[in-house]
Amino acid sequence: MRVLAAMSGGVDSAVAAARAVEAGHEVVGVHLALSPTPGTLRTGSRGCCSKEDAGDARRAADVLGIPFYVWDFADRFKEDVIDDFVAAYAAGETPNPCLRCNEKIKFSALADRAVALGFDAVVTGHYARLEDGVLRRAGDADKDQSYVLAVLNADQLQRAMFPVGDTPKPQIREEAAARGLAVANKPDSHDICFIPSGDTQAFLGAKIGIRPGAVVDADGTKLGDHKGVHEFTIGQRKGLGLPGPAADGLPRYVTGIDADSGTVHVGSAKDLEVWTVLADRAIWTSGVTPTEPVECIAQVRAHGGTAPAVAEAVGDGLVVRLREPLTGVARGQAVVLYRPDEAGDEVLGSGTISGTERELHAHATGVAADPTR
Prior knowledge:
- Mean pLDDT is 89; it is low at 361-373.
- With 373 residues, the protein is α/β, with parallel strands linked by helices.
- The longest helix has 20 residues, at 97-116.
- Helix content is 27%, strand content 27%.
């Protein structure tokens, strides 16, 4: 096959491209320029898309003996990922930009251009496995990225290749060194790639500005003030700006965010428990929407906890009823569904979390809902 290898400048994508070459494919490397003003150097393991990354990708392509190009996707990345990220936080959501980048950039904009140019597939260094179009968790559970790939539809999965998904990360580094790839010991990127400082609140504050509101306890008591809902996410305990512990002496967590009123709701750890998750923009990786409720394992955060559940397609969305409660369920994140067999590694589908049963009840009545629901 003629395949396009997306080369970020890191070790995973370099080895993925090398494996594609070794498998006999006709491989062309491409680095995506996602920033209009890339820095000369990254800051340690933070950030990406720097001149250093582009240079590392080019040198890896040279070692592999494949053609290499840099494609400018900065405008598309700003619109579909960065602007979306800022707007979601301003609306009181907690988006996952990696998930949106996969959906809108790597497996949409990039894949569409690749197909238009006659390529059969896009190769990336993601840690996940594809077997006959079925998306599965990676062999290395600590590096598994199936959660952030669960937004891909059946057509996109048919045009994707994840050559490193069956291998633990230490072995990938050893292989890179054996192949003479200089990125073998390059640090992994952490945090959000377009916020190299790692200070998400400062980044959002500069974009959104001060939008003051109140921090309110579960019984409606005002506990304090804040400068904007973008400074909070569901499940957050630190940085609430409260003068002291609650009357019951228990720690407080963010349990709800109302961007319209600027209100941040806090409560006890028990108040975080969610039994029903509502989601829109449902994607079924098989390409077929089920007509009956589906038994599954639900995951609501990247590398977060899972729970057995029953998911039902409702319109273009999902209702996921959990058999065990999950916490940290935030609007804007994804709920990803896995097949509940012994392996538990097959991705069935996903949806973007739009709310919870407890949240909707609280909003409609103006009081905190029964946390056992």
